[in-house]
Amino acid sequence: MTTETPGFMKRLCSGTIDQSLLFPFPSLEPDQTETLQMAIDAIDALLADKAEDFGKWDTAGEIPLSFIKELKQFGLFGLILPEENGGMNMGNMAYSRTLQAIARHDASVAITIGAHSSIGMRGLKLFGTDAQKKKYYDKLATGEMIAAFCLTEPGAGSDAASVRSHATDEGDHYLLNGTKIWITNGGIADFFTVFAKTGGADARSKLSAFIVTTDMEGVRISGHEDKMGIRGSSTTSVFFDNVKVPKDHLLGEEGGGFKVAMNILNSGRSGLGGGCVGGMKRLIERCAAQANEREQFGTPIRQFGLIKQKVGHMMVDCYAAESAVTMVAAFSDGRCDDYAIEAAISKVFATEALWRTADEALQLAGGSGFMREYPYERVLRDSRINRIFEGTNEILRLFIALTALNDVGQGLREMSRSLKGIFDDPIKGFGLLADYGRRQVEWRTGYGAAGLDKCALELRPEAELLEELSRQLAAMGDTLLRKHGKKIIEMQFAMRRMADVMIDLFVLSCTLTRVTASILDQGPDKAAPEIEIARVLAGQVRGRVTRNFRKLHENDDDLIKSLADLAFDSGKFGFDALL
């Protein structure tokens, strides 16, 4: 597949369901499955009896170096690197599933491993030269060198254009200066993927990516940050003071740093998603035990409808999140080249599903859940960061919608150009008009639109719902661009609604694909619980998407913004019921 072929969601926003990207649901080859199972068994053997240690390390705010050494000996820093370099050569599907296994035990350990492989050295794997890989792969695979990703700065979080770190070309080297904050693994890393402006520190300069190691003079690491969650993981600031970075430490092309950063984040997001799924699975196990063992009013609480409601929704969220994360991992393993939107969707959905699960698990545990003696409050604290790092979910929602709308807009611009030159090239012009007219008919009537006929017959109602909502999504994008034009970037409420529709439709698509595979593999009777999950999810999606479509035209957006401005202008709430 070429990079010119639009990804699944871009095509969906144009009214086309590309089933070739969804079916069959991704799976591993038997030898890969065997290797993965061995890795998971080894992880469980290493981590299963360390629950008390994880609590102590959370309180202390640091994983001891002696345990980091154990992780190295188990080969957990070489998961995605080639076997000839001492790694396990995992693709993203197997890697994501491995992080899922680690996260079942402790989020801080999962973050330590994930920050190394998902983002810290991912740039080297994706953009490194043969010489760079030869120099560092062996050390990174064994954990002799641990990697970290350095992008965020004071005043430059999601806005990469605001980066102030700069690398000046000095002939045979770059002179790097700047400060990076909130760097995961910062206190234990030896290898940094660093982003800095080249050509000066002003906003017009382009971002470049560099390999920087701690043995370079001028690299300084701060003390550990005192965090709310994932407290065992190392988070520091990293300072670069006239660091001489050799020219051959440039990652990718000079000025190509934004492309490097985005590809790293897209490729590594299935690792974060896998960690979220692992956390959800462990919480469901804890909730099941709690519901079976705890009694109220002389009855196990598993008998209460509101308890069943909580756990039932956890089951749907976990299954749907795992389906989307697995599909995105398969995309990044080669099924599809254009998957940035889908990667962002999987991150948003999985992190928010974990947050809902952690919150409800603590609620189910009652007062015990609030006590540090039990793991619920720590899991809740650990889960909160996921909606912030690797791109805040708010920024990612804007990215999801704007990227799709840009693709839709290209089609509209082509149509506009064809109208201007219709008499110069009538065949081309009428062809584009005919194509646009066909899409309009499909969006509004469903006649002739591409369907989801590869779904199992047992899922026909859910597949038809997806087809219907997909047509409405295509019309939604068309309407937004016609109404707002270039000002669409200012319409953040509308873009959030479109992003939420896209998130729901992609997750439902992946879930239907997975349930279809289960039906084909074991028959509808044994797959009945998964069919139930698909039906519940479809009902949830119908309700949410319908509300988002309706609020595109009837909403209180201006009232909400006015109230926010009132608080900003006065600097306070400004109302008092009694005084």
Description:
This protein is α+β, with helices and mostly antiparallel strands and 579 residues long. Among the domains are: 147-258, Beta Barrel (Butyryl-CoA Dehydrogenase, subunit A, domain 2), CATH 2.40.110; 413-565, Butyryl-CoA Dehydrogenase, subunit A, domain 3. The protein is built from 18 helices and ten strands. The strands form two sheets. Strands 1, 2, 3, 4, 5, 6, 7 and 8 form an eight-stranded mixed beta sheet that branches. A two-stranded antiparallel ribbon has the order 9-10. A hairpin with a 3-residue loop joins strand 2 and strand 3 (173-184). Helix 9 (257-293) packs antiparallel against helix 10 (305-335), helix 11 packs antiparallel against helix 12 (376-384) and helix 15 runs antiparallel to helix 16 (492-526). The longest helix is centred in the middle third of the chain and has 37 residues, at 257-293. The radius of gyration is 25 Å and the shape is globular. 45% of the residues are buried.
